[in-house]
Structure formats: C-alpha cells, structure tokens
Amino acid sequence: MKNGKFIQIMTALLFAATIFLGAFLLFQVQPLIGRFLLPWFGGSPEVWTTCMLFFQVFLLGGYTYAHLLIRIRQAKLQVIIHIGLLAAALLFLPILPKEAFKPTGENNPILQILLICSLTVGLPYLLLSATSPLIQVWFARVFPKRDPYRLYALSNAGSLIALGSFPFVFEPNFTRVQTVYLWSILFAFFAVLCAVVVLLARKHHKVVQLPEPTETEKDAIKPVVSLKWLWLALPAAASVQLLAVTNKITQDFAVVPFLWVLPLGLYLLSFIICFEHQRWYKRGLFVPLFILGIIGMIYARRTEQNLMNIRMLIGLYVFMLFSCCMVCHGELYRLRPASKHLTGYYLMIAAGGALGGFFVAVICPLIFNTYLELNLGLLACSLFLLLAEGSERNLKFKGKSRTGKTCSTGTNQIRQRVLIVLLFVAGGIGILFMGKRSTENQKAIDNSRNFFGVLTIWEESPDDPDMHKLLMQHGTTYHGLQFQSPEKKYIPTAYYAPGSGIGLTLRNMPKQENRRIGIVGLGVGTIAIYGSETDTIRFYEINPEVERLARKYFTYLDDTKAQVEIVLGDARLSMEQEAPQNYDVLAVDAFSSDAVPVHLLTAEAMEIYLKHLAEDGVLAFHISTQHLDLHSVVWKLAEHFGLETAWIEGFKDDGEGALASDWILLARNGRFLNSEPIDKESSSPRRRRKEVMLWTDDHINLMEILKKNPLAR
Q1: For 439, phi and psi rounded to 5 degrees?
Q2: Do 171 and 257 meet the contact criterion of CB atoms below 8 Å apart?
Q3: Which of 159, 212, 604, 641 has the highest CB neighbour count under 10 A?
Q4: Sorting pLDDT into bands at 50, 70 and 90, what band is 297?
Q5: Is residue 159 part of a domain?
Q6: What are the residues whose beta carbons fall under 8 Å from the beta carbon of 64, sequence distance 6 or more?
Q7: Rg of the Cα trace of the chain?
C-alpha cells in the first residue's frame, strides 16, 4: 500500500516536472530568439511585437494539436504520434538562427521574422505549447479526483521563472550562443520526460477513457456559444494590452529583453494568481485598481513631455497592465468549464491571445496612423467585463455559483455594474488624452505608421513668417526641422546646427573637397546642406517612410550641392556587406530617439564603423537621449579601441532652430580633435564619465546608465 502511494507521488511529481520544464523552455526561448533578431531589423520595438505574434500563433497551434490528439481514442496511436514529433523536433537543435536568414531590406520585415522563427524553432515551440493542456488531460485521466487546473498555475510559474531569469541570470552570464546550446540540451531532456509521461498515460489506459464526471460536473451547464466567445475575447483584450504597453515603454526607453519580460512576466503572474484558486480574484478589488491604473496612464500621457522619470513612467504603465490582466484572466477563470471541456477552453484562450497579437502586429499598422490600440484595448476590456458579468449565470449550478455560495444579490450586481461603467468611462477619457496634442501654433499635417513606428509632420507658427517651420517627429522625439521662409530654409537646424558637434566637424575639418560623408539615420536630411559640389553624402536609413516624408516636406536633400546616396536597410547590416567606404566623416545619428537601437553601440558595431573610416577620418556619435546616459558607453568603446575623443554640447536657440544636442567625436589620432575650433568648444569628460562595462552583442547593461534626472544633459 505504501509502495503504491509512493509510486503515485512520484508519478504526480513527474507530471509536474514535465509541465514545469516545458513551460520554462517555452518562455525562455522567446527573449532568446528576439535577442538574435533585434539587430537584424534595426532594433525596432515591432521586432518583439512580431516575435510575440509568432509565439502566440504557434501557442494556438500547440493547443489545437493537443485538442485533436486527445480525441484519438487509441492510446497507442497517441503515443506514436507524440513521441514521433518529439523525435522530429530534435532535428531543429541547436536553435541557432542561420546567417543566411539575415534580411536584405527588400522584403516585408513581419513576414521575414515569422519565417525565420518558424524555420529556427517552429516544431519545438509547437510541442512545448501543447505540453500544458496535454499534461493536464493525462493527469486528469491518471488522477481523476485531482484538480488539473492547478497544473496550469504551475506551468505559468515555470514560465515566469524563465522570463525573470533571462535578463538577470542568462543574459549577464552567458553569450547568446551558449544560451542556445544550453536551451537545446534542456529541450532534449524535456523530450525524454514527455515521452515517459505519454507511456505512463498509456499504461493506465490501453484505450484512453475520459474520467468519470464528478457530481459537480454532472450538474454543470454545457458551455454555450456566447460563453465560448468570451473565452476568446477576454484573453484577446489582455493580449492587446500586453503588446501595446510593451510597445509604449520600449519606444520611450530602449528595445531590450528586460522591458520585454517585465510586462510579459506580469501578464503571466495574473494567470498564476487567477488560476491557482478562485479566492484570489476579487472583482470588487481589481476593477477599482484597473480604473486607478487608467488614471495613472492618463497622468503619464499628460506629463511625459515634461520628462517624467522613466521608472515612474514604466511603473504606471505596468500597473495598469497588471490590473487589466487580473480583470480579464479573473473573469476568464470564473467562466471556466468542467475538465471534460479543458482542451477546448485552452484552445479558445490561445486563439484569443493570437488574435490580440495579430491585431497589434499586423492590423493596427495597416489601419491606424498612430498608436490607438492601447486605449481601444481598454474599452474592449470594459465591454467584455460587462458581458462576462451577464454571462456568469451560464456556469451556475442550481441556484449556487461555482464557488458554492449563494448567487449575488441585486445590490451586489448593481455595485459591480457601476464599477464596470466607471471603467468604460475611464477608458474613453484615456482616448481623449492620447499622445501629443496640437497647440495653438502647431498642428499635425501628416501621420504615417509602419513596422518601424509612427512618423508625424508638424507645422509650427504658420502665421509668423520668420518662425514658420515644419518638424518631423518619430514617436516622442523630433528628428529634424526646417524653416519655411526663403531667408532661413537653408539654415542647418535641430541637432545639426553650425555650433553642434557635427556642424563644427564639417565646417572646420581640414579636408573641404572630395569628402566622403556617411550618415546613419536620415531624419529630414539636414546634414546634406553642408555638402559641396565635390562631396558624396551617403545616408543609411532603415525606414523607407522617412525618405518619403523627408523628400515630400523638406528640401535639404534637393538643395544640397553634394551627390546624395540613400541606402535602405539596417545600417549595420548594410555596412557589413559593403566594401570599405573610406569615409572622412561617419556620423551615427540613431540615438536621439527615445528607443535606443543598442546594437549600434556595441564593440562589434564599432569594428564595422572603423572598417569604413578613413585613416584621418572622424567618427561622430549623436547621443542626445532623455533617459539614458550614453556618454560613458561611447567613451568605453573609444578606450577599448584606442581612440581619441571630444565631447561637444550644443545648446537650444529658437531663433536659429537649434535644439540641445550631445555629440562625441572619435578619431584614431588627436590632430583634428585638438585643433582650436574643436578644442575650445569641447567639454570635459570628467563631468559626466563613470565606469561602465564594455557593450557587446552578448552583454548590454542599460540599468547602469539610467539617468536619475531626465533633465540632465
């Protein structure tokens, strides 16, 4: 008897270990693959959004596979199919994206990312996705008197540990390639565990039988179609909010794994809390918290232009996300069916997640020219909550609720509906305060959205000929401006004014003819105005919409005397494939946006820049950012490569259209940097520099350069 109990315990532990390891691998691979693809597609926030779409679609595929597999009545056939696919998945190992998959800049990046993910990790990820529902079903058949839903909480706990460990354990201590091989070894071990579980399930039932329904399940009302739609709609709303919030905070900070896993971790935590036990979700608590989260988001939207501390900004958004997910997933758990409908229930949850991901990653860039999905998700959540409150009666048992308590009184129902109405109103108010609004002297005249973000053209002071100008904004950051009066339209402005680091360099460098000038980042093309008849200026720009708008609304590219070349695609990949260009000046101007493309600031990137730089050439980094102190990162790179540096601070001048700027100039020797025009404008590094790690493609630490004061320059 004791031996039988021991075997039961060990069997249950085997089920638990398999589902935990599967979930760990499932979510460990997400930031890992995203980390490989991020520098291939320009460091855009949409890279992670598209990766998430792949993961959600394949999660749906895994749940669909599980749903169909358990309906095969012959246990032997189930074993053959699943173990055969596990063996086939081993052929994908190691899951290392091939260099041949690197984009050329000519194809749709969303389709390219989906294809690369499919060819790299498609089958392993699909089988990992199927693990949770399959293990729960097999567990229910082996242990028919135990609640399989608690395994779902264990699965999400494994996922949460995987996400938390990636930025804090694996990324700092292992290279990307080492992590790939470690993951591949663990997947092979998981495949063995899963095969043993399948064989154990078959051992208990030669022909798989559904467990006998409990007395409670016999009384359960069969889920109706309207209820199944809520199983789809609630996770879809939560998925939209997850991706929308992730997009928002990465646009305002940087596209790094930590800011991927933080929202995703809270999203999973809400699943863990809600599905561990019904006592944890209280509608009367979390709906007011959700309303409070929306108020916090509105406050963030209205004050971020005044440079709110990034920690507070991120905190407000993730608080709103967590409270939203608790509401959506708490209502989802309230509407759970009997265990015989388990795989269909999880299938609808996965379909909802994939639908939300598809909406944000594919539909929104096509139908919206600004980021509307976050607030639309809020309205959808409040609407679905209202429908869930009305549909809860579909899972009530003969006068009592799923909790066994007497059904809600009329007073409670009224209070709940008042809260939901308040939530709906709060979401509507949120839409009114979206993004930057037009002022009396400024209005938006064009908006454009694609994979790389939202571009806005602003017209300012149209009634004042001397100050009339057009500006290009990407996200929350201006990327150039031009006066419209004939007298001032040729003035180089913004971060490229004559007194800026790049302005001083181009005006005072000894070589003033036959110069080759390379620019990473087109903006409105301001730097082109410095070119002479014998110069060649080559821009690298990843977003084709930037070129279109720069030519449509600004004249710098047409007015320059120099020969202009524009190379579309990620600058780093483009320069990797080019022969040395022998640039006299190479300006890296991709860091003025709030979302910093960190792959352009690594030692590997620096090697590429130096390959293209002439022996006496100048490498200029524009590092004006609100939230990150990039100075020390550039100085560390200069020290590593033995380069001389000069730090030039530019200051705002409204009359001349100059914006505050930070440029660091680097050169192999100090002849030009020590010349009088540069030396007298240089600032001392001692005022800013602190010791930081050398950034490489495998190791980047943004936390050590986070500005405590966003107003610091």
Answers
A1: -110, -175
A2: yes
A3: 159
A4: confident
A5: yes
A6: 347, 350
A7: 28
Q: How far lies 304's CA from each of 309, 312, 662, in Å?
A: 8, 10, 21
- Look up the CATH number of the domain holding residue 514: 3.40.50.150
At which of 170, 193, 208 does a domain end? 208
Q: Please check whether residue 232 is in contact with residue 41, taking contact to mean a CB–CB distance below 8 angstroms.
A: no
Residue 72 lies in a domain: yes
Residue 510 sits in which domain range? 495-705
For 103-117, letters b (16+ CB in 10 Å) and e give bebeeebbebbbebb
Tokens of 686: 């001692």
User: How far, in Å, are 44, 243, 436, 577 from residue 317 at the CA level?
Assistant: 20, 12, 17, 40
Apex 499 CA angle, 498 and 500, nearest 5? 95
Q: Assign residue 152 the CATH number of its domain.
A: 1.20.1250
Q: What is the 3-state secondary structure (H, E, C) of 339-378?
A: HHHHHHHHHHHHHHHHHHHHHHHHHHHHHCCCCCHHHHHH
Q: What tokens does 597 get? A: 């493309």
Q: What average pLDDT does the segment 356-378 reach?
A: 86
Query: Which tens digits make up the pLDDT trace of 109-156?
Result: 889 999 999 999 999 999 999 988 888 878 777 777 676 667 777 887
Q: Which of 121-135, 155-169, 334-348, 555-569 has the lowest mean pLDDT?
A: 334-348
Please indicate, yes or no, if residue 378 is contained in any of the structural domains. no
Strand, helix or coil at 616? strand
**Residue 262 phi, psi dihedral angles, 5° rounding:** -60, -55
599's CB contacts (< 8 A; 6+ apart) are 38, 39, 43, 572, 605, 697
- Give per-residue pLDDT as tens, 507-532: 999 999 999 999 999 999 999 999 99
- Residue 396 within any structural domain of the chain: no
Domain count, the chain: 2
94 upstream amide cis, omega within 30 of 0: yes
The tokens describing 44, both together, are 């855009």
Final residue before a domain boundary, out of 154, 181, 208: 208
Six token digits for residue 666: 């680097």
* Residue 133 backbone class (left: φ over 0; alpha: ψ -120 to 50; beta: rest): alpha
CB 518 within 8 A of CB 583: yes
pLDDT category, 398, cuts 50, 70, 90? very low
25 touches 190 (CB < 8 A): yes
